[in-house]
From TrEMBL:
Protein name (database record): Carbohydrate/starch-binding protein with CBM21 domain
GO biological process terms held by the UniProt record: regulation of glycogen biosynthetic process
Annotated Gene Ontology cellular component terms: protein phosphatase type 1 complex
InterPro entries xref list: CBM21_dom (IPR005036), CBM21_dom_sf (IPR038175), PP1_regulatory_subunit_3 (IPR050782)
GO molecular function per UniProt: glycogen binding; protein phosphatase 1 binding
Keyword RNA-binding: no
Secretion signal span: 1-25
Transmembrane segments annotated in the record for this chain: none
Natural source organism: Orenia marismortui
Pfam families: CBM_21
Keywords, ordered alphabetically: Signal
Residues in CBM21 domain copies: 37-157, 168-270
Length: 270
């Protein structure tokens, strides 16, 4: 009888320890220590990309923020997507929250959310460091999910400090995105960010001047590389008639596969 009770007691202790380990494995800590329970294989957050935006410059000061897109699988309303972020990455302090804005449903079925952090101004001379650290929080039907890059948090950083990685953009689910675009008179100038999946690649912009009754193609050219295997390419579209609306998308072909950025199925317009 004594041995039986001892065996039962040992079994109960083992089950209790196993349960504690499972709970600990599901605890997700972000930023300043906030946490939530989640199962890794059921996380509905599908992070597309984020980048640093240099917005203005005055004297030795530059103003910037961070922005990006997030997908959510099986979106259920009411729901909320929040970016938990800080600009004080070295002290790991001053964590704040900003709500993402719902944009609609993408062709892949994900519900798309867009975020922008508030503007911040920093001095530079001769070195600059414009960075943002963040994690993604999704709330729906009383459940809370986090994507915090496996407890490391995400980091984007536009910098020229020697020995520091320059990573002004993160591409996660996205393989290629439109970076910037501007139009002056009859010329459109733009840039593209893409994951360097192979040395040999073909990057094009497909555009139309008559709402896709006809279309044209212009090739993009390599510009620079960042320190996280992402490249920036530039393109120019000339001879655009005045007052003509241009619709376009990006076609990135590598290793026999096409990757597109068509603004989540709506195409870009300028």
């Amino acid at each position: 009888m004594f041995k039986t009770r001892s065996s039962i007691a040992l079994m109960l202790i083992f089950i209790l320890m196993l349960a504690v380990n499972i709970v600990n494995a599901q605890e997700v800590k972000v930023g300043n220590g906030k946490g939530a329970k989640m199962a890794e294989d059921s996380n509905p957050i599908d992070f597309y990309y984020a980048k640093v935006n240099l917005l203005s410059e005055q004297g030795i000061s530059k103003t910037y923020n961070a922005s990006g897109y997030i997908g959510v699988k099986n979106n259920s309303f009411p729901t909320k997507v929040t970016i938990h972020y800080t600009y004080d990455i070295y002290s790991n302090s001053n964590w704040k929250d900003v709500d993402a804005k719902y944009m609609g449903v993408a062709p892949d079925g994900n519900h798309i959310w867009h975020f922008e952090t508030p503007k911040i101004t920093r001095d530079y001379y001769p070195y600059f460091n414009y960075d943002c650290q963040f994690a993604i929080k999704y709330e729906s039907n009383g459940q809370v999910y986090w994507d915090n890059n496996h407890q490391q948090n995400y980091l984007i950083k536009n910098t020229n400090v020697p020995g520091v990685n320059n990573i002004p953009i993160l591409l996660k689910r996205s393989r290629v995105i439109l970076d910037k675009v501007s139009r002056e008179n009859n010329t459109i100038v733009g840039s593209i960010d893409l994951k360097n999946l192979d040395y040999s690649k073909d990057v094009k912009v497909v555009y139309t001047l008559d709402n896709w009754q006809t279309s044209n193609t212009v090739s993009a050219n390599y510009n620079i590389s960042y320190d996280n295997n992402i490249e920036n390419w530039k393109f120019i579209i000339n001879n655009i008639p005045n007052d003509t609306k241009v619709k376009y998308y990006i076609d990135y072909k590598v290793n026999g596969t096409h990757y597109y950025d068509n603004n989540f199925g709506t195409n870009y317009k300028i």
